[in-house]
Amino acid sequence: MRQKTTLPADGLTGRARRARTEPMAVRPLRDGRYVVETDGGTYVVDIDARTCTCPDNAIRHARCKHLRRVAIEITLGEVPLPGEKSATCAVCGSRTFVPMDFHGPALCADHEHRPGDLVRDRETGGLLVVMRRLHTRADETPTPTGKLVSEYETNEEYGDHEPVFEAVYLESIRATANLDALEHQRAYRFPASRLRRVERQFIRQRTAEPAAVLA
């Protein structure tokens, strides 16, 4: 159960100020609405419909302090958007948000990889292009040889519970290749934390044709 908290409100007045200075606890519901507990009562906010069960909104149709507080906490990342739920990042343990119907190990924004991302293999230093994420753990995902991803010695330092990514080594890709062409390249499977997103400067240092790769 979340505790009531307040937020800084320098320079604000009226409902905007009360939304921050009055103690409130916001709790998401599975149907996409939010319960807002205050010292004066408990109300239900529907952020999409812009409604609240408090008199200020229900009777006077004002954008009440409860609606404002929910919007603020969504923006601050304190509560998920409607249709999302809280989860724990499998790499760092921090809180993150995932779709309500999501299953499998979750990742925060710092450890997530998207198809087409350039990443570095922490073990070899090689550059790879991410193909896809598999929503299974390293200790339950086999490689083409039948060996589990977690069973490789080079993966011993990475979590067995982490989700697995498929990626193609950059050196095996033609400069003009697109994601569709990558489907025909040999892909390797890695625990999430073995792959690190790289900066453009690193790519320039590791590739002979940076302009073609980065175009």
Automatic annotation (TrEMBL):
Residues 43-75 form the SWIM-type domain. Pfam families: SWIM. One of its GO terms (molecular function) is zinc ion binding. Residues 1-20 are annotated as: Disordered. Keywords: Metal-binding, Zinc, Zinc-finger. This is SWIM zinc finger family protein.
